[in-house]
Specification:
By secondary structure, this protein is an alpha+beta fold. Helices cover about 55% and strands about 10% of the residues. The protein has one domain (about 1-200): Glutaredoxin (3-Layer(aba) Sandwich). It has helices at about 10-25, 40-45, 55-75, 90-100, 105-115, 125-135, 140-145, 150-165, 185-200; strands spanning about 1-5, 30-35, 175, 180.
Length: about 200
């Protein structure tokens, strides 16, 4: 079984759901295929207004909802981070590079997500990515060099194109077979689908 996880490294809801998603996949013996995508292109493809440009009322609700989920998941959260939104290309490509090097880059992904939403760090900054990579036991210089490569940029673009082709509307979206589950608050449905497949 495989769960494809389409997400943006600057997504607050991806941050809130990532550890639980990893736990769900592990409980059911599913491979978690993490695919960072260009969320601006996805929003454009589905005619969605980016959260940062939504009305004050919607932004206020989003922050309230995030704080409730952070409390439930026992996660630290700064609901109004200084470095959001930012260009997530560098962070996304660094994740792709890390996955090519080590396969499972979950700790690095988690560190990048938390950098935005728990520690108020700028993931568009090379020094930030280098520090996070080093903290995760990665070769920061190699990660940054690979993140700039044409091959990694092409892989990131392919993730985005696949997300659009698969009908992804936002971050995070989990895909199992032909079924999409949008939002970290849908992880119970993800778990139910994995359980159904295991029992089939």
């Amino acid at each position: 079984m495989r769960v494809i996880h389409y997400f943006s490294p600057m997504s607050g809801f991806a941050y809130l759901g990532f550890a639980e998603l990893c736990a769900v996949a592990k409980r059911h013996g599913a491979e978690l295929d993490n695919r960072p995508m260009d969320i601006a292109r996805v929003f454009a493809a589905v005619d969605t207004i980016a959260p940062a440009r939504q009305s004050p009322a919607r932004l206020a609700w989003r922050r309230t909802d995030m704080m409730r989920w952070a409390q439930r998941r026992a996660l630290p959260l700064n609901a109004i981070p200084r470095h959001w939104p930012v260009d997530a290309t560098l962070a996304s490509c660094a994740i792709v590079a890390a996955q090519a090097m080590m396969g499972d880059a979950a700790p690095f992904i988690d560190a990048i997500l938390a950098a935005v939403w728990a520690r108020d760090e700028d993931i568009a900054n090379e020094a930030t990515i280098a520090t996070l990579a080093t903290a995760c036991g990665l070769d920061a210089a190699s990660i940054l060099a690979d993140a700039r490569s044409d091959a990694v940029r092409a892989a990131y673009d392919a993730n985005t194109q696949a997300a659009i082709a698969h009908g992804v509307i936002g971050s995070p979206t989990m895909r199992i077979g032909e079924a999409n589950f949008f939002g970290q608050d849908r992880l119970d449905f993800v778990e139910g689908e994995l359980l159904r497949i295991n029992l089939a």
